[in-house]
Records
---
Amino acid sequence: MRTDVEGIVLRRRKINEKTSMMTLFTKEFGKISAGTNLSEGRNRNQPALHAFTYGKYELNKTRENFFINKAEAVKSYYSLAENMDKYFHAGYVLEFTDKVLEEGVPEAGVYSALKDFFAALEKREKGFGTLVLAYQTKVLKFLGTEPVLDECAICGQKKNPAKFSIEDGGIICQECYSQVQNTRSESLIYDLNFDIVKVLKYFSANSLTNMQNIALKDAAGRELQSLIRAYAAHYLEASDLKSESMV
Ligand SMILES: [Zn+2]
């Protein structure tokens, strides 16, 4: 069966001189692996096979495999590679996305958030890490693992929020915290500093393309990064990413 899809290159692995295995995040089929013999030469196929590209692909779909017949870049964010810091942040986001997506499951929300992330990162001058955290917050939401932020994740009361508990999936109240404190791993409990809840809600509710002027201060950014990584590791098994020490 022949089918046209649009997609974002997550990864490319050379099998031999002629063949590459691409990991594409397609709008239509979610994450897929697809082989291709398209040449890397100086032709218009080339950018469509590289990371940081959003393109159109003509696929041959057999029962078990995808094969890319034609590829055409729609937008290549190659300029990200001109700024090492941007490049590392973009690379981390691709690895994170690859890790949290299940093969063959369409994820329209994550797909459009990833496109927005690239567009926003390209325009940004600083605060790249903040944009990454906002993207990850959206991914948690779209994959159905959004933390509970409006009420205690254990008892549901809206008063006295005391901590953010990874294991309980969101904020917990003072009473519940006193009860579960001894049974929770200390490293998975976070203080509610610097309006951490407000920031998460803001990330969740606003488009990545409207965050040009938002950049967290260093300490707040590091703490939220630690929380989101721990949360994604706990709920989406997104841990030990090769690129995470770079951002
Ligand atoms: Zn409670």
---
Amino acid sequence: MRLGYRIRLRQDPLACVEELSRDSAEGVMRLPWGGWCVRDTELAQTLLRDPEYHTGGSVFFGELLPARGAQVELGRAVRGLLRADVPRYRAALPEAVAALGTASRWPDAGTRLVHRCLADVLLHPGTPGAARELLRQAAHQGVAVRSPHVGRRARAELVRARLVTALAEEAHRRRRQPAGEPRDMLDAVLATCPEAEMSDRAVAELQLMMFRAIMAPVSAALAWSVLLACLHLRGAAPWPWPVDHVVREALRHRPVPWMLGRTLPHTVELGGTAFPAGELLSVCPYLLHHDARHWDSPYAFRPERWAGSGGHGPYVPFGTGPFSCAGAAVAHTLLTESLTALTGHAHLAVTGGDTRAAMSEGNVPRPFVLHRTTDHPSAHDTGGR
Ligand code: HEM
């Protein structure tokens, strides 16, 4: 890839893809970093509906869990666990929000908040402390959400390696003392992966992958929701919108997975062009969510657009088709619960943030400080960050 593109991509991936789209006259454009992106909304929708496009298997699970039946089973099991855990998540929120203090540095603070509330469903409290502590470090030190900074990524790699070892040991221990009903995500992974087919280490890798697949988009979408709403209001005012509309609009305006791609298992014909097997063909949710032919004022952050039932264009923050997100509904609940706790009896304002995305696996906001002023200032300020 040319250096200019690499720099632009790092500076602002969404602006970069938008610029490429503006400069292209074709329905499908070549990406300078490899592969193709369908820039025309109608063609993108046709592709996403085409069963042929989805015959290559789940990109999400890849080689970690190849059997489709097991993938579906695991997705459902984890979704069920998270759903059943919502009351505990909700109950954990006031303390996690209080621990933020009056000024917290995001997006990292949001990741810590989400982890704190999910910790027990990821690894239940009876798990040896070392594994839970490593999972906490993974959430705090750039394993759950990949840092855009190279130095931090190297440090995260060390935590990751120690975590995989600890999870593999725990998987081994649990296989000797199987639980009845799954108590946490590791039990769910173990229930899907028989010992004869999958080593303890492979189970640990899968648990880590699921941990990141939950933590990264939920944390990023929470941070975007907070940032965009506060930037829009410009002042510590109570939010005039239902949190549900804020979440929907944040996921429209800054969809966390910004490219949904498939390596074609065989030739796919689209818009009169044949794309051969082996090509990477992607759809960009960000472009779909900003098509002015389908969305009113697409560049404006307007939660109120979700007040009515109509007037919405193509909306795919969780993908679509056979491999769409197994946890979409519960992810939405975790986000609205978190925002309810953050905004309850409090005014929010931000400093230092802007709407440009930083490049990670998905879109993450650049660092900003959240100032949270409660109606009872003494009650909830622990000075934590
Ligand atoms: C805001 C939060 C989330 C976002 C934006 C998100 C987004 C996505 C997207 C776009 C895909 C499809 C990728 C593709 O088409 O290749 C996906 C797949 C998946 N997501 Fe999520 N996700 C979120 C949270 C969660 C949660 C909480 C779970 C927990 C159950 C989860 C589980 C999965 C699974 C299992 C798949 C793979 C589906 C399959 O291949 O069968 N996600 N997610």
---
Amino acid sequence: MKFANGFLVYCLILLISTMATAADKPAKHPKTGEPLVIDVLRGTPKIDGKLDDWMLDLLTPAVLDTKEQIFNGAGSWKNPTDSSGKFYVLWDDDNIYMASVMKDDKLSMQKDGSGIWNADCIEIFLSTTKATPPHAEHYQWGFNPDNKIWNWCNMDGNGSREPDYLKIESTKTGDGYICEVALEYDNVKSLRKDFKAGKAMGFHPVFDDADDGADRDLQMTWTGREAHDQSQGFGQIIFSDEAMAVSAKQKLSVFWSLIKTQQ
Ligand SMILES: [Ca+2]
Ligand SMILES: [Ca+2]
């Protein structure tokens, strides 16, 4: 009987750990099948709508630029010049920073408040790494190139309002726009313990595109699924202890040692 009990406990542990592993896996890219994971280096950019303080070449962005990632409105999407985006992330002791570099050939932001999703808009989700049904374990913020901001989903029950803790500065470029954002993560209470080096967090960047001043024409998401659809997990960010500046220095020293070797 003792053996049977032990075996039962063993099976239970195995089952739970299998479930946890399955749930912890990031979603896959709908076209390439690659896992959607990016590392987040340490850095403190100034929120001014300029990305000269981001070493973009050293960072891996989440990229949204294929028709397979269109959740709705595929018929109205022409190519990446019409609308596509790269989403870079950094962090420090207090904030998580996001630089969204968007291509968008026609800007249209005639919506306000909770309706900003229905025009040109970026939506960012942070979540647990669990695969759970929609609207379950995530936060959802939105912002646009007119610096309008909103928080819809909120795991602390504090959503459906303009968040006073989200800083944004945007720049309209010739072929789209840039949004530089800082989010103080003391305001992300339910995930606060996961802002730690080595930890993974669910991440789902999404954009909405409108062209003619009316409603949204299309939505593209990192996973290709509906923005809130966490049922198969989102992509993930992994917080690294490596500083963006140190990483740059290392790259430079590798470069010089290569030059030396070649001499
Ligand atoms: Ca900046
Ligand atoms: Ca647009």
